[in-house]
Amino acid sequence: MEYKLHSLHPDQKDLLDKGMLLPLMEEFYTIQGEGFNTGKAAYFIRVGGCDVGCHWCDVKESWDANLHALTKAENILNNVLSFNAKSVVVTGGEPLIYNLNYLTSLFKQKEIQTFIETSGAYNLSGYWDWICLSPKKTMKPKEEVYLKANELKVIVHNINDFKWAEEQALQVSKDCYLYLQPEWSKRDALTPQIIEYVKNDPKWMISLQTHKYMNIP
Predict the structure, then answer these.
(1) Is the Cβ–Cβ distance between 209 and 184 less than 8 Å?
(2) Which residues pair with residue 153 across a beta bridge?
């Protein structure tokens, strides 16, 4: 984490390492728009910091953790509780840069379901009800994340990503749900290709960014 955050007081660094402080970019209560849990109400927690470097990323402002205020995990919990949310989605950036054991333990104490969306490029931490793995070619996932993923969501940006998706599907467990999702800026061109691909190989399902169609976060 030192390569992401600078000028920290030693006490801050200790709390960051323990996951008691996190660089919070944004948080909001909304409807999950993608993958298996599409349509469910969820409180989103977006942490800053990512070096995976997807050129088509639509939240590049999350990459630099130094731009986002260090926030106490208890404050995040209280914000979730104020909305009476029953589930949270921890995303980024790349959330597994940080130790998420403490934050998720707070949620578990309140019987709040915990979901994560991750590239899997860092070691797994946290206590999760659902792990959505969205692997990226620039930094391949850790084996533990492959094995524990409940859902594999591959973003299709070009025709070569179908081959990449099949390679990734070989790494996850047999119980993992498999999704192909068109990259938003190329959805009109790619969605018909994904439809035909899934029809020909129905082990796959289609994920769409339905929150963007609904014009919600």
Answers:
(1) yes
(2) 179
Token pair belonging to 144: 């533990």
Q: Kindly report, residue by residue over 42-100, the tens digit of the pLDDT.
A: 999 999 999 887 776 777 777 888 889 999 999 999 999 999 899 999 999 999 999 99
CB under 8 Å, gap of 24 or more: what pairs does 144-148 form? 145/96, 145/118, 145/120, 146/120, 146/171, 146/172, 146/173, 147/172, 147/173, 148/124, 148/173
Exposure b/e, 106-145, CB count within 10 A at least 16 = b = bbeeeebbbbbbbbbbbebbbebbbbbbbbbeebbbbeeb
Contact 152, 169 (CB under 8 A): yes
Kindly indicate the confidence band of residue 4, based on its pLDDT and cuts at 50, 70 and 90.
Answer: low
| Mean pLDDT for the chain overall | 94
Domains of the chain: 10-152 (3.20.20.70)
